[in-house]
Design brief:
single chain; about 240 residues; mainly alpha; 9 helices; about 75% helix
Length: about 240
């Protein structure tokens, strides 16, 4: 990863090579352990209730996971455009809102974990897809938006050079393309998780595996929720 970091430090003009490099960084983040909670959410979206036919279920899993990833990518691209337009002033605005964002993520992660554990049952289009695929896709897209603002310690070495390149360019298009490429690439594992979960739900004898997968995924989500709750306290000034 060190080699990728050093290459990212030297991002210059907007070229296919620079976009590919940023996308590689996003893909690395997408498969890093820090992204496992997002993968668990995408897997839960893809698994659904398992009632649909296998072909329909896989398509639905792809659509929901893709909607979730597209929500993340959209926020990344918008932030990149803002970085290119207003520079580091955007970071000051974001810092003032991060307590609310991380608090919202905490609630979403806890509710999703409890749903995976069957402690609560939320009958909403995102967690229980209906036949109305477009509305479910939109719900998954909206669910992904706040996660586009999430950060993690492992993301910083690879994400920071991309942000610096976007802010120093004074070009909103360059910033949007770079950050959008980063977000799109880190969403690829999410789509793969959604399709895999939707396929696994129909395998013979998959029920025990799915139950354990849901339990592990719920545990990851609770751990991520605890981290976001801690970040909420930091940004809100509740810690010393």
């Amino acid at each position: 990863m060190t080699g990728v970091e050093s290459l990212l430090q030297n991002i210059g003009d907007l070229t296919p090579a620079s976009v590919a490099l940023v996308a590689l960084a996003g893909l690395i983040i997408g498969v890093a352990p820090s992204s496992f909670p997002l993968i668990a959410v995408a897997g839960g979206l893809g698994a659904g209730d398992g009632a649909a036919a296998p072909g329909v279920s896989r398509l639905r899993g792809f659509c929901l996971a893709a909607g979730f990833g597209l929500g993340i990518t959209t926020v990344d691209a918008v932030l990149g455009g803002l970085f290119g337009y207003a520079g580091f002033a955007v970071l000051r605005v974001l810092n003032s809102a991060m307590a609310w964002v991380y608090g919202l993520l905490t609630v979403i992660l806890v509710l999703t974990a409890l749903t995976l554990w069957r402690v609560i049952h939320l009958k909403i289009p995102v967690l229980r897809p209906s036949a109305r695929t477009a509305q479910s896709f939109g719900g998954a897209f909206v669910l992904g938006l706040p996660f586009g603002l999430s950060t993690c310690p492992a993301c910083t070495p690879l994400l920071l050079p991309v942000v610096v390149a976007a802010t120093s360019s004074a070009d909103p298009i360059k910033g949007a393309v770079l950050m959008g490429s980063f977000g799109l690439a880190r969403s690829i594992p999410l789509v793969a998780a959604g399709v895999a979960a939707s396929s696994l739900a129909h395998w013979p004898g998959a029920s025990p595996v799915m139950r354990w997968t849901e339990r592990i995924g719920g545990g990851l989500l609770i751990a991520a929720a605890a981290w976001f709750a801690w970040q909420t306290a930091i940004y809100a000034g509740w810690t010393g």
